[in-house]
Amino acid sequence: MATPSPTRLSLAMERTGQWIFSPEIPADVIVTVGEADFSLHKFILAAKSNYIRKVIMESEESDLTRIDLTNIPGGQEAFEKLAKFCYGVNFEITVHNVAPLHCAAVFLQMTDEYCNGNLAGRTEDFLSQVGVSTLHSAVAVLKSCQQILPFAVEVNLVDRFVDVISSKACSEANFPSQSPPNWWTEELAVLDVDSFAKVIAAMKQRGAKYLTIAGALITYTERTLRELVRDHSGGGRAIVSSKSSDSDSESRRSEQREILQSIVPLFPTEKAAFPINFLCCLLRCAIYLRASSSCKRELEKRVTEILEHVTVDDLLVITFSYDGERLLDLDSMRRIVSGFVEKEKSTTVFNAGVNFNEHFSAAMQRVAKIVDTYLAEIAAYGELSISKFNGISILIPRGARKSDDDLYRAVDIYLKVHPNLDEIEKEKVCSVMDPLKLSYEARVHASKNKRLPLQIVLHALYYDQLHLRSGMAEDKEAVAVAAAVEKKQLQADVSLVRENEELRSELMKMKMYITDLQKNVQGTSSSGKETPGPVKRPTFFSSMSKKLSKLNPFKNGSKDTSHIDDAPVDLTKPRRRRFSIS
């Protein structure tokens, strides 16, 4: 039997010496777990562990003095508690150590089949009664499984508690039992990314809503990438610090890159699942961490889908580094804007069947204004080349801009920051805007702007004069049309008055004629009777005729008819005769 030297006792052996129940019996075996040695008794260990019994029985040495258990799940801490259990020393089982203890007990075959009331049975009872009782305890058990992989998977601990956690998380999402309602997302945020991914997948299988999944992903990202994602507004700091070495910084960046690349594939397919400021923040993280192309393309695609809700600050988050001192990436911006324009084009043509260059949606017009304002912000940086400036501005269709004033402001800022450009380069920068679409104030400013090339100034002046002339011509034409209409209306009114007068005259003549005719008929009827009567008095018309005859200037040269009385006309009916043929 080999007795270890007192000078070479490890800390583990010093601790075990405090709880071995019979120190007068010398230890007969040394158990090695990693770098720790435990001086123990073979018969006590073999009484509880079928694995150790087999090792002793199958050993080729007649007197086995050392057993190597370096591969035991849970390592030194787990084996120390197993040894205490073998020696009858009490210790506490918690949700944080039950998983390593259970796996170590199964590894050493400390089951009830070998010995009644063994450690594996007790840890299983604890898992069934305490481990699954609450979400917090289940998360703690699953988290402790990370250090004992892959053995925890073999004994079905991981899948078992992933199912428990997903069930409780879905229940809390639908029927919150605590305040705030999303408290459960904070519980899941303590898991490692692999365990978290398994929980999210299990929640999706249970039919969790996409907003529920999105809430958990946002909280987890904020917790695990706290240094890069702070408040979705671009706040955050780079992972490099003055006290950390280059190797530590690269290691940390690699870890964060793996986390980000594991989170993005978990996103729900719905485009409205995440706010756009969160997506822009993650895209900036992907660019900074040099994530895979697939990761960046997925984030760019999601930003493109809801670009109409973007703000200038969101776009600047993607563009600038964390310190805000330099441009980080413009290729992503070009792909995002280009993708949105193509999406709007296909949507407009498919739904309305019209020409995209003539009909632009409100979303397209809003994005155009946002992009022009964004160009004015980045134009102030000297490192921005003409090709990159023009490359983004020309992506917006010209018809989508109601006015080019914002674009003119961006061009003016760019020319101010880059004073050494020659005339050709200035014209190239100014080629992205249309002077005809500038407001009057902008054209006046452009005509006095010495930074603009001469050609653009002349264009501004020409279009201004053209606008004024066209306005005067339109005014003259409007006056002429109004005068013609008024004249035509006046002529119509005069014609109507004449027609009314003629009708009135005709009606008076007709009335007088009928009155005279009635009076003549009455006079003739009275003179044709056989019985004598008074002499008929002259009528009004006869007397008037006589008087007029006296005033006739042609009386002496014409036949005088004034002495002729008005003879009565016989108006009696003639006798009816019968005509017959005899």
UniProtKB/TrEMBL annotation:
Keyword hit for Nucleus: no
Domain (BTB): residue spans on this chain: 27-95
Domain NPH3 intervals: 182-467
Annotated pathway: Protein modification; protein ubiquitination
Compositionally biased residues, Polar residues: 520-529
Membrane topology: Peripheral membrane protein
A Pfam family of this chain: NPH3
Basic and acidic residues biased stretches: 245-254, 557-566
Biological process according to GO: protein ubiquitination
Keywords: Phosphoprotein, Ubl conjugation pathway
Primary location: membrane
InterPro entries for the chain: BTB/POZ_dom (IPR000210), NPH3/RPT2-like (IPR043454), NPH3_dom (IPR027356), SKP1/BTB/POZ_sf (IPR011333)
GO cellular component, one term: endomembrane system
Compartments, as annotated in UniProt: Endomembrane system
Region span, Disordered: 235-254, 520-582
Family affiliation: Belongs to the NPH3 family.
PANTHER family in the record: OS12G0117600 PROTEIN (PTHR32370)
Protein name per Swiss-Prot or TrEMBL: Root phototropism protein 2
